[in-house]
Amino acid sequence: MNITSLNPVVNQPRTINPQPSQTTDVSFANLLADASSSPPAKADVISGRIGIDYKEKGFISSVSYFDDQGNLLARGNFNAQDILEKTQQFGIPLTDLRGAGQQLDEAGVGYKPYELYPGTGSDHGIDFEDLISGGLGTAYDWRVDANVALKGPFAQRELQKSQALAEQLGLKLNPLVTTGGGIDPARLATQKGVDGVVRNFVLHSGGTASWYQSSEEAAKAQSSLGGRVYDKSQQSAAGAAVTRQPANTQQASIDSSKSAADHELAKLSEKLHNLTEELDASRGSTNINQSQHYTIYNQLLDILNKVQ
């Protein structure tokens, strides 16, 4: 199984209206009323009115938002845009992220850029302090997508919403955080698949990284894709694969047998969700790209079969 770390695919948030309409006010009031009967706040990590879950998948999978009584208001993805949107929508201070970060550090759970998916070199993750300080909070600039024209009208609309959100909030790019470096080859590590096979050879080509069991397999892929092959076998023998040093200096082991496959599954699920929304919005139109939908759907089923 070839595990591939894709280019960052960013969930683009919905724009927040600085002057909510009466309909928005009513909807929010209904949401608060519904929340009064919700169960108490529950998440793996809770700081103020923000909760973060990570234990089920071995990496951060979702963010929860609570009212002052601890009732669940909403649950969203772990990305900067969604956090900015929902904290403003529900009047939650971004400083609540600071306590969540401290707890994640103590647990040895990666959340910062290049730490979210250990051993993959992925630039995904959020710098909470940068986000609190008015930065983008990410290693990549989520206001920009050079390939958006190839992704269809839905992606274009979402990018425009992201740009509007950043402008509305007055966000400024911090070059020390938002470096735009893409995958970091220095952070690549051997991966152990759900089949128990250790893959030590990593092909880094453009914005992707793929893992292979043998140097021959990696070289074959390199001949068609280009890039550079890294041999991580010595690192694997030293037991350094897919681990992270927590703040308390005790070694925290990440479930490397699942992390890469779950990462890929999460990305495909995200793609399918976004495309499904686009299809729903275009229902009755002649512009529905059903072939693309079926392609992603089949990819998702393939990954599901592999991780079962």
Protein described:
The protein is of the alpha+beta class. It has a domain at 4-169. 38% of the residues lie in helices and 13% in strands. The chain has nine helices and twelve strands. The strands form four sheets. A four-stranded antiparallel sheet has the order 1-9-8-10, with helices on both faces. A four-stranded antiparallel sheet has the order 2-3-4-5. Strands 6-7 form a two-stranded antiparallel ribbon. β11 (243-244) and β12 form a beta hairpin. It starts with a strand and ends with a helix. The model is unreliable at 1-24, 240-262, 282-288 and 304-308 (pLDDT under 50).
Q: What oligomeric state is this?
A: single chain
- SS strand fraction: 5-15%
Going by helix content, strand content and strand pairing, the class is alpha+beta
Terminal CA distance: 13 Å
Summarize the biggest pleated sheet.
4 strands, antiparallel
Number of helices, counting only DSSP H or I runs of 4 residues or more: 9
Order of helices and strands: EHEEEEHHHHEEEEHEHEEHH
| Mean pLDDT level | 75
Task: List the uncertain runs.
Answer: 1-24, 240-262, 282-288, 304-308
Helix content: 25-40%
Round the Cα radius of gyration to an integer and report it: 20 Å
Shape: globular
Count every beta strand, where a strand is a DSSP E run of 2 or more residues: 12
Strand order of the largest sheet: 1-9-8-10
